Amino acid sequence: MLTQPDCIAAYPVVLGGPVTVRNIQSVHAWLLEALRRNPVVEIDCSAVTDVDLSLVQTILAARRSAAAFGATLTLAHPASGALLDTLTRAGLLGGAASTDDAFWMKKD
Could you tell me if 42 and 108 are in contact, meaning their C-beta atoms sit under 8 angstroms apart? Predict the structure, then answer.
């Protein structure tokens, strides 16, 4: 007998290497397509080597799109490495105005 699982497996979007303004358009398209087709999408940024604010902006916009599609967007791991460095340099973590710390640091 088949049963419905209690949780839905997240569709993985694994990013690696440099993710900058030079290639963000393909990342954006990939994320939107994943969100249109899957109720839960999980981004793995652990292998990115170079990040600029275009990735941060794309992920924040994808979170809004996910809500509009009735989907959920999460990170596979807390921000680290190049992504964490970019978030920190941009002042997007730990400030009084930051409401996204829990998302970036994967605190549920």
Answer: no
